[in-house]
Write a structure and sequence with these properties.
four-stranded antiparallel sheet; globular; single chain; alpha+beta
Amino acid sequence: MAYAQSTIGGSGAQQNYSSNYGNLQSFGYSVKLGNRLSQTDGSFYLFDNWNNIGAVYTEDKQKISILNINLNIERHTFESKINADSIFTFNFNNINKFVINNKEYKNFYWDGDNKVYQVLYDNGNIQILKGFRVLFVSGTVNSMINRPRDKYIRKELLYLRKDNKISNFKLKKSHILKLAREKGVKATDVELYAKTNNLSFKKEKNLKRILDYIENN
C-alpha cells in the first residue's frame, strides 16, 4: 500500500512545523503550555523522552513522519513538541494508526471510552493489544512509607480483541491454549511446538510465533 509522505519535526522543528502546519490542521490542534514547576515524580507520558521516531498513517493514504512524539496516557492522545512551550495534540479523525519506534498503535472504543493500544498481534481475526494506564499516587509525610512527593506510576495490561469486543488477556499458557482450542488446534501440538522452538508462553517476544503457529495449523 502506497502512502504520500511528508516530514514534521527533527532539527529545526519549529520551522518545519510552521511550513508544514497545513499537513496537521485536520488531525488535531496546537496548545501553548504554561510555565509550571513539576512537583511530581514519574510521568504520564509513555516514553521517557521525546526523541522518538514516528509516523502517522491517515485514512486517505498519507504518511506523515514525526521525530518528536509521545503518548499522553492520561488523555490517550499522541502529542508532538512544536517548541519548548507548545505541543501539537493529535486526534484520531481520519487517522488509521501511529507507528512509533517500529511499534504500531491504534485507537479502539472500549469500556465507555476511546483508548490507545499497542497492537502486539493481528491476524485479521484476533488482535492482542497492550493498553496503558497511569496512576497518580499522592506523597505523604509518613516516614514509614518513604514517599515525600507525588508520583505517577505507569501500568501496562494486555487485551484480546475479537469480533469487535475487547476482553482481558494474560501471557499465560492457559489463555493462549484457549485460543488454540477455539481454532481447533490441539493444545499438545502447541505445547510441543513451543518446547521444540524454546518459546515461552510468558514472554511477549515469543507471542507472535506461537499465535502464528496456531493460526496456520
